[in-house]
Fold this protein.
Amino acid sequence: MSVNLSAPVAADLLAINGVRIGITEAGVRKANRKDVTVFLLDEGASVAGVFTQNRFCAAPVQVSREHLLAGKGIRAMVINTGNANAGTGAAGLAHARATCDALAKELGLTAEQILPFSTGVIMEELPVDRIVAALPKAIAAAQSDSWAMAAEGIMTTDTLPKAFSRSVTIGGKTVSVTGISKGAGMIRPNMATMLGFMATDAAIAPELLQPLVKELADGSFNRVTIDGDTSTNDSFVLMATHQAGNAQISTLSSAEGQQLKAALLDVAQKLAQAIVRDGEGATKFITMKVEGGKTEEECRLVAYAIAHSPLVKTAFFASDPNLGRILAAVGYAGIADLDQTRIDLYLDEVHVAVNGGRNPEYKEEDGQRVMKQQEITVRVLLGRGEAAQTVWTCDFSHEYVTINADYRS
Amino acid sequence: MSVNLSAPVAADLLAINGVRIGITEAGVRKANRKDVTVFLLDEGASVAGVFTQNRFCAAPVQVSREHLLAGKGIRAMVINTGNANAGTGAAGLAHARATCDALAKELGLTAEQILPFSTGVIMEELPVDRIVAALPKAIAAAQSDSWAMAAEGIMTTDTLPKAFSRSVTIGGKTVSVTGISKGAGMIRPNMATMLGFMATDAAIAPELLQPLVKELADGSFNRVTIDGDTSTNDSFVLMATHQAGNAQISTLSSAEGQQLKAALLDVAQKLAQAIVRDGEGATKFITMKVEGGKTEEECRLVAYAIAHSPLVKTAFFASDPNLGRILAAVGYAGIADLDQTRIDLYLDEVHVAVNGGRNPEYKEEDGQRVMKQQEITVRVLLGRGEAAQTVWTCDFSHEYVTINADYRS
């Protein structure tokens, strides 16, 4: 099941000069499955990343943070599925380091030039030997047009691979952006999603990459939720190879900086929304807009309270306009001085509640009509100020329970 | 479905001198259903209550708060099911007041001596005329031995009525405590449960009742969660009729105060746990103990993060010891300086994780054995200090989705 999402067409995805990707089968958890992916970057590329805020963060997240801080210039990444290498203590850290050591040796680099990523089951030992053994095959397979295959190679409970591209003309030169993401459950990113990788060939001052990746995550992956569970392994990485031939972008506020940012944000939002569209058991894609708040933070609180409520999510699944559940979630979101008599609620263009009560002109059949759609916008007006925020989520179905009751078996 | 819970036997419930209860059918939402209950209290009784912290609190909650503050001496309560009278704006408030006016007139009291309670669907108009019309019949039916029937009369999606009694000897006199509760979904009380009513015949200084009801709620209803949704209508009321003949208890810290409190807390915890045992779709009853925290508040944060995780709850449903999901929830609970290398995890007596990693001596079959039980204790050791907290919850099953996708139909 997925909501208005289809697999990417390989030919639609733009190669990024300076990025090659190799995918192989290592048998991490199951045989005959693409489960190890390597990214190889040309010398001179810049890389920045944001990672999960979960205090139980996985070993590869800890190592990736260290290696980015070391500042030796990242030249390769290795991603395995089937095992998250989280909740694995000191042994897990050693395994993540061993993977980097092995890849560095194959490529003639130092370990600090490698970023490791893992996704899959938590609290089981990483089969590091099988991963290391598969690296030469992955390197040998590396091509610049393998983005579609990479999107498949990083899937876990995803039903579809997720990849998007777009190009933009900056200073007369064509700049390309391509990204992939994965994730379908344990999704309430807090800095980044399960896994997201984006690359551009734009020339851009390397020191701009870290603030840029943070801003992109806040505008995309940090606005989605499926089940409210923040993963131990969330990572979102932005690569720039600087090979497009445009004059180097030196500030994000310049016209060129804004053009590049808009193109990147477009791809990042599509990748983030694709995770929701492919949410475990999702049958609907729901946009939660909260407006009229005093601060963006309180709007986000309200949007997430609605988006996490199992009662709201099951009502969407049933196409049942049981909309009082939305008001209840607004009420417990945590705004201490909220005045319920100022709240309005819309379902698409249907005005459901006015001043905290049912709109006398609201008809059940209008709510019912919108609830039956596959894409629904919920708009809450708080009547407190000018701030607004948007969050994307999905409904909560029998299929979610089935998937998560059976995941390991 | 419910977990180790059976309907109360009417003969086991102790009548409380000074409390009579009448139940009738008003046809609030459906015909042929006991949906209106009145409590009648002798002159001189004391009443205190705690209510939902949801800012979208229902009209009857607003009116009950007002009437308790007025201090005229509460002499009656009226409870309807089938309609929550929440999200109903000014009309809803008028309906709650009209219900009190009508009951006061029947009983020769003033409206401020009445507390109204409603539970059921949100954002639909209260059929106040049908409720008012049913009041004389409820009053005529009032008896002191109707607690079991009252427990039935306040049910909504509950599969079983919930009522408990106990007696305690205080200063040579037998003091009785009886209580009822209802609730099965939209349960994450924040001050009190959906609806809980307890009465004792103990003589106790009336000014002690309010701190006592707060303390009881914190030790019982505020420690349970089913789906994390805080209702608009949560209310928990404690009545004391002072007719047991014991010397008046004038401090809670006295030996007699402690005896009474222990008896009340015992009944309050059984009522709160009964709500979890009857949680929508529940197949397991889970005790979340978090120990070794710096503060009780951070222990509660962790316990609730685990208890609300749909991934943890579906793993319990499946009896799948996918215990990394518990560690992930500990990690995102919100303790900023949590050190994952100090965390231990137990499932009953099975030591699953040690210092943040899998216990080398942990065997999957031991975890599996505990996960298959109907009652499970999860114990998390934070290794930060001496504070501890306990929260009770249930698992998350297909049945929960079915119930909440179909609730209104």
